[in-house]
User: Fold this.
Amino acid sequence: MKRLVIAVAVLALAGCGGEAVVPVGQEAHGHGASSAAPPVPGASARFNDADVMFVQMMVDHLQLGISLSQVGLAKATSQQAKDLAGAIDVTQREELTMLKSWLKLWDKPEGDGASLHASHGGQPLLDDKVINETKEKSGAEFDMNFLNLMTGHQGAGVEMALAEKKDGQNPEATAYAERVVTSRQGQIEQMLKIISGP
Assistant:
């Protein structure tokens, strides 16, 4: 499992750089960040089916990522893993608010996550059952399981974002997809370093 996830992540990173995911001075729960929340970026009314599908799937993807990051915050024993979980939690909550506002603007439903993934010929790597099973682990075993799951989950986010960059029309959605590719690849790179150890 460990080798499989690492191989997938390495392929996702091939030829691409990444950004640091935990800003200097930011604690696991987002302390140290600006106290004033930035305004939620709006989206233009010009969009196509690929934009809608991407945003709907990302809403489901982000909700699952937040659920897993909350478990990581509560149970991780490695400070690196805990800090990463905190940074992911803060970032993805902001993104979720933004994407939900876009769907409302476009008069589109948030959709059912399982059905959206099934329509693309597969199922998400992460679901409530997997997250609940992860809660049963502890110590170093939990940390490794959490990092492996989050690595695969963020890799799936990169794949969705690349599809949006190729097929999407909405400028804000495609710009967001570009940010997803960069940020998630950075997170994957950090997680691989933690998994590999010193």
